[in-house]
Amino acid sequence: MQIVKPTTLQEALELLEKNQEGEIFAGGSDIIVSLLEKKPNFLIDITHISSLQQIQQQKGQLFLGALTTINTLLENPLIQNYTPLLYEASQNFASHQVRNLATIGGNITNNSPVADLIAPLLVLNTQVVLSQKNKQRTIPLQELIQQYKTLQLHQEILTTFIVPFQNGFHYYRKVGMRQKLSIAKVALALYKTDTHTFVSANGVNKFVQRLSHVETLLNQKNFTKKQLQEAIVLDTNPHSKKEYKRRVLFNMLGDALSLW
After folding, report:
1. Angle between the N-to-C axes of helices 225-235 and 242-259, in degrees from 0 to 180, rounded to the nearest 10
2. Checking DSSP bridges between strand 42-45 and strand 2-4, what pairing results, if any?
3. Angle ∠(22,24,28) on CA atoms, nearest 5
4. Mean pLDDT of 172-186
């Protein structure tokens, strides 16, 4: 296995173009585990590209470099002030040691059905910047994630997350085997503005996605508990423990509704 360590984004993009089977990684908290099963021939370690480690604000949006670590998110006041939902989800992310390594880009591109930050970023209507050697494009995060462990990347590197300032009620809850340092069994991210309610959840589908039927229902003035249960069934297909996970999600939504 060959590992290369570019120090600029352009260098990394050129390496990816020349080695199309190469895999990108940064902190490595996920890929190190996967190496036990799959050993790629060519790894591009982008950990030291400083341009992808910045957090900036501009015109009501935060621009988060993909190499921003989870602890950096927690330490930066812009996150707490302008995207408190993302801040709260980051507080529930693994251990302090893992948060020092794990990056926001790595958590999303690993595309696990229980990745902690996908659901909050989805409901905050995040966009992502995808770069190639000579061009880049910006798309909604939900367009990037459309299948289990598969991303709509075409020899591209995810470089930036564009997150609008949060302006409304949010709810976040994560349930696992224990209170801390736990992988989610179910986690709910909900964001309510003056005009719309956005909902996403971990652990209830093959990949994290918005819950469209639940959203439609919550954006109506009146609905019954039975209608909410039916919407949850339409929006979820857990790999295991379906009834349990749907019941947990129903209870979480009830808790959220009682608070707004």
Report:
1. 130
2. parallel
3. 130
4. 84
Name residue 138's beta-bridge partners: 129
Bridge partners for 64 per DSSP: 55, 161
Residues 212-228 as b/e (b if ≥16 CB within 10 A, e otherwise) read ebbbebbeeeeeeeeeb
Q: Beta-carbon neighbour count of residue 137 at 10 Å? A: 11
Displacement of CA 22 from its chain's centroid (Å): 23
Token digits of residue 114: 């229980």
State the DSSP string of the chain: -EEE--SSHHHHHHHHHH-TT-EEESS-TTHHHHTTT---SEEEE-TT-GGGS-EEEETTEEEEETT-BHHHHHH-HHHHHH-HHHHHHHHTSS-HHHHHH-BHHHHHHTT-TT-TTHHHHHHTT-EEEEE-SS-EEEEEHHHHEEETTEE--SS-EEEEEEEEPP-SEEEEEEE-SSSSS---SEEEEEEE-SS-EEEEEESSSSS-EE-HHHHHHHTSS---HHHHHHHHHHH---SS-HHHHHHHHHHHHHHHHHH-
Predicted local distance difference test score (pLDDT) of residue 184? 87
- Nearest Cα residue to 123 out of 45, 192, 184, 22: 192
HSE on the CB side for 188, CA within 13 Å? Answer: 26
User: Which residues, in sequence order, are bridge partners of residue 145?
Assistant: 151
For residue 63, which amino acid is it?
F
Q: For residue range 51-79, what is the model confidence (pLDDT) as tens digits?
A: 999 999 999 999 999 999 999 999 999 99
How far is residue 146's CA from residue 143's CA, in Å, rounded to a whole number?
Answer: 6
Residue 27 sits at φ, ψ, to 5 deg, of -60, -35
pTM (two decimals): 0.94
